Every structure is written in structure tokens, then in C-alpha cells.
Give the backbone structure.
Amino acid sequence: MNCAGPKGKLAGHLHLPEANGAAAAAGVLVAGTWTSVKGRMADRYAEELTRRGFAVLSFDFTGHGESEGTPRDYEPPA
């Protein structure tokens, strides 16, 4: 899943629980640490929340992982 914004596309994964009839699932947005990428941290939390019945969106911050933006993989020392 990609979503265009003012600084480029953000890459994310949408995790959906197994269909449960007509029941709607509560949604959760999972953000990892600033320099972490979704596949290393956020997706792990998302998978567990999905098993518990939540619809979950995990994503990479601008300039990290599969998301667009510059500078790339920069963590300010301050």
C-alpha cells in the first residue's frame, strides 16, 4: 500500500483480521521507532493485534524503509 503525501509516498502494510461475518473491526495504526522499518518492528505488533481481531496499518516513516523522501535513513544526533 502506498499513500502519496507532500514529501512523497509512504509505504505501509494493511493487516486485516479473518472475516467474522458482518462484524466491523476496530482499526489501529502502528508506528515503530523513528528509524525502524515496518518489517522489523511494526509488522510484528500488527500481526499479533490482527490475530486478536483488529485491522492494523503499519508504515515506514518518510525517508526510511520503502517510503520515499530525503534524507534517506537519517537519524539526527541531537
